[in-house]
């Protein structure tokens, strides 16, 4: 790290780099936990050393969050940013049916992110790591001119030859989701409106707390992914990060099949429905195109539907059948409440829109 900053935002010499790293990381995870996670050598050297297993394959994923693109300081606290940066990666491992194991964290911090703010970011990061049993094993830290950038690389494992991919959907199968969608988008909508409210009224009082938490503290569907792998019944899988319609399109194109989603079957959160109604927002837009829900969408043979629902119910997890797979040109179709069908556009968040 070169040219970082102290608690007042003043530049500190580069020799303090390792002191800052120790301050943010030391004592966060016990030696016993790190040993159980297979960590031979963690933070403090040029590279981490992790023991392997002959019956597992490694899963690697990386996500980057940029200030004013993925989050704002008027909608997310510092700890929320750290938590969500790791949770988004955890969801990628869940979407393969895998188990998250270790993570590397790279941060570029501007002067506005002083030592105390960075420590709170790491509080959230380690809170998520503890929840999902992830060892933080290293990374990189640099200065940045203006916006904070947080990039997390996650490492997971999955049984050899068992990773669930997007390309396994087949005609005659059912489409499912592991929870309602649209909550995070509604939460963001409410949080952004905070700027127009009196400071005497908190946004948490204005919108359901579940929506706020869905945006700030997402809950990746790790156990759901493991059930789908353990039973062998999940034929394709994807996590809803960019929007339900977008992720359904990814499965359709990877599988060369048509996905038909039924509007009446889409799970609706009561909190979301009441808030959308109060705001005059079309509920379906948030549900299909909102993104950052981190539930799973996938496909299953109809013969296994009932047993899979029972397995999920036994573990206190939701599962909703929302459509079916058909043969034909790869596309996603919505069967409306009136029974008519219409193509669904490839909606969702796009960093590089045309035009």
Automatic annotation (TrEMBL):
Q: Where is the PurM-like C-terminal domain?
A: 170-329
Q: Where does Mg(2+) 4 bind?
A: 46, 92
**Which parts of the sequence bind Mg(2+) 5?**
242
Q: Where does ATP bind?
A: 122, 139-140, 166, 241
Which pathway does the UniProt entry assign to this protein? Answer: Cofactor biosynthesis; thiamine diphosphate biosynthesis; thiamine diphosphate from thiamine phosphate: step 1/1
What catalytic activity is recorded?
Answer: thiamine phosphate + ATP = thiamine diphosphate + ADP
Chain sites annotated for binding Mg(2+) 2? 63, 92
| More details | Reaction mechanism of ThiL seems to utilize a direct, inline transfer of the gamma-phosphate of ATP to TMP rather than a phosphorylated enzyme intermediate.
> Can you name this protein?
Thiamine-monophosphate kinase
Gene for this chain: thiL
